[in-house]
Amino acid sequence: MTALVLIPTYNERDNLPVVVAGVLAHPNIRVLVIDDGSPDGTGAVADHLGQTYDGRLTVMHRHGSRGLGRSYLDGFRVALASQADVVCQMDADLSHDPRFLPALMASAAAGAGLTIGSRYVEGGRVENWPLRRMMLSGLANTYIRSVTGVGVRDCTSGFRCWRRDALAQIPLDRIASDGYSFLVEVTFHAAAAGIQIAEVPIVFVERRQGVSKLSASVLVESVVTPLRLSLTHGRVQSRGQ
Ligand SMILES: Nc1nc2c(ncn2[C@@H]2O[C@H](COP(=O)(O)OP(=O)(O)O)[C@@H](O)[C@H]2O)c(=O)[nH]1
Ligand SMILES: [Mg+2]
Predict the structure, then answer these.
(1) Residue 123, helix vs strand vs coil
(2) Distance CA 198, CA 218 (A)
(3) Strands (E) located in the chain
(4) Of all protein residues, whose CA lies closest to atom 16 belonging to ligand 1?
(5) CATH code, domain with 180
(6) What is the residue range of 148's domain?
(7) Structural domain contains residue 173
(8) Per-residue pLDDT reduced to its tens digit, 196-241
(9) Which residue from 44, 108, 140, 234 lies 20 to 30 Å from 225 (Cα-Cα)?
């Protein structure tokens, strides 16, 4: 089974080489770094990694307005045109440990169209989060589940693995949101399309270097998006756990 791992970056100069080394320690994996013109020079660091890991790492340099969701959409389109069996998503800030990739890929190999690396299933957890961030994340997931009907414990996790044939069923042109909402919206479409969703435990470690790009507008969008999805498409009966 071959995988393409999408890694969006914005100011991750010091973290990116570490995460890439961890990812490419696994066989049959390639990386696509999607850099949004990081002012700290992450794009150049990524280009250098492309030379180091010749043929296994490519870089997409985005221009214009930045956005995590838009970056993922561009990456998905590249992935869909590739030969990779599975398409993974992970953060560059070392919150997502590459050691969990084999478990995510094994779940995809066993048939799950979308596998989510989950903090909120047995064996999963978060390290180094203050209580208020834990509560916010827990509340957000309860809210998303009750409004949309999607039965996933960790809908806002960005550590994921898609079977490429499942990703091809998602109406990418209709996805409007960014940040966490992007993750929620894509998961909603996966559940609505009847794609099998699985969660495997991960340990999420809060970043030690650089800063989070979580902003107030992202939080507002997170409240609005589940409502908009359920009003527009109706609640879904998830086949997740
Ligand atoms: N391409 C791109 N990547 C982004 C953008 N915002 C955040 N990222 C990356 O997305 C990942 C998660 O972002 P982060 O700020 O750590 O969010 P948090 O983990 O929710 O606090 C990291 O790899 C970031 O570098 C963006 O606008 N464009
Ligand atoms: Mg982070």
Answers:
(1) coil
(2) 26
(3) 3-9, 29-35, 57-61, 86-89, 114-118, 125-127, 160-163, 197-201, 203-205
(4) 212
(5) 3.90.550.10
(6) 3-233
(7) yes
(8) 999 999 999 998 888 887 777 888 888 899 999 999 999 887 544 4
(9) 108
